[in-house]
Amino acid sequence: VALLHLLGLFDRPASVAALDALLAEPDIKGLTEGLRGLDETRMRRAFNHLKKLGLLSENPPPPGELPKNLPHLPALRHLESIDAHPLVREHFGERLETGQPEAWREANLRLYDWYRKLPEKHLPDTLEEMEPLFLAMAHGCRGGEQQKVFYEVYWERIRRKKDAYSVKKLGAFGSDLTALAHLFEQVWSQPSRNMTEADQAVVLGWASFRLRGLGRLFESIEPNKAGLE
Length: 229
Description:
By secondary structure, this protein is mainly alpha-helical. The protein is built from twelve helices and five strands. About 55% of the residues lie in helices and about 5% in strands. The strands form two sheets. The protein has a three-stranded antiparallel β-sheet. Strands 4-5 form a two-stranded antiparallel sheet. Helix 5 packs across helix 6 (about 100-115), helix 6 (about 100-115) packs antiparallel against helix 7 and helix 10 (about 175-180) packs antiparallel against helix 11 (about 195-215). The chain is elongated, with a radius of gyration of 19 Å.
């Protein structure tokens, strides 16, 4: 069940390296204590049991790639990621969020910290290099740190402040809009109230601009009006 709760933190296949980061000390109370105590044989047995039940699947790495160094999860070092049906992920994610909100928050913030440190460059140059920053935004916002995420990741490293790098240089209107969506409580009318009112207005304006850039003119009206207010 703990393994399934961990998968519920993700909206895509879960990187085994990210899962290993979740099992690092200190334990996340109510989530990882039991897993960190399992030896490799018992972890592999639990994983295989869930596979037989059809609740988990595994994704091997590309041919020729060496097994990963996973100090906390050696039983999965031969894999690239593990996955579950989206409905399974959604169910166990909701169970964790509603039943153990502190564990949900701490786990997402740990993933935020791990993903934002993943790029080799502080200012990635391509969308592929930026992908960990987009994932960091998702987890940081799920952890309730929208203001921090806005400045540390989006403004500083994706947008590159006034350069608007992701849009002006990469033309990544879609990816940029998806990143901004994490900063909303209700798209596209109410940004997170964890941000200052001024930053909420800015985010509304940016969302409207990106929607227009994608040809979604009718949708762009709502954030534009909310931003003016």
